[in-house]
Amino acid sequence: MMTALSKDLKYDCRQAILSDAAEIHNLMQLAFADYAKRKNENKNKKEVINSALREQLSEVKKDLEANIVLVLTDSDKIIASLRLEEISNKRYLLKRFAVSPSYQNQGLGTMLFQEAVEKLRKIDALYLQLYSSLENEKLICFYQGLGFNCLETDNKKGYERGLWIKTIK
């Protein structure tokens, strides 16, 4: 478990456990609804519903059993989460990466991501990839700052998104 201090507050990063499922599910609903609301307020085109908003509790539990799921906590409250799924030999998919809206823009997502990269290094992962919207400049800058490069784009989900790759060394 990693512990970090930020603005005199203590945050812990740990592997999630099955009993965290409901709290992780609630965090995903809160964070992705906030993201979708901000996205749709800034666009005059068709509303896009992120698939994370349709995720069921059973899917969170399935990820907890099959994949690496990390959480960042403030005391006992889960404030951020991400999931790492091995999609081929030593290549992982970063998915459902979210920080509670009231904790955003404090470096906590970066903190959680750095812990994930350390975990991937320990298991000799070679690549980490993710899909993300290309319509949010702040998000693009965030992933570039974490060392990701956009390799290709598509509109398969109803919005422009990119396939981002990071080499793990």
Key descriptive features of the protein:
Aminopeptidase, 4 helices, eight-stranded mixed sheet, 8 strands, single chain, alpha+beta, 169 residues, acyltransferase activity, transferring groups other than amino-acyl groups
What does this structure look like?
- The protein has helices at 21-41, 57-66, 108-122, 137-145, and strands at residues 2-6, 9-15, 68-74, 77-88, 91-99, 127-133, 149-154, 161-167.
- The chain is α+β, with helices and mostly antiparallel strands and 169 residues long.
- An eight-stranded mixed β-sheet has the order 1-2-3-4-5-6-8-7, with helices on both faces.
- 33% of the residues lie in helices and 36% in strands.
- It has a single domain, classed as Aminopeptidase (3-Layer(aba) Sandwich).
- Mean pLDDT is 88; it is low at 1-6.
- Helix 3 links the parallel strand 5 and strand 6 (127-133).
- It is built from four helices and eight strands.
- Helix 1 packs across helix 2.
- It is globular, with a radius of gyration of 16 Å.
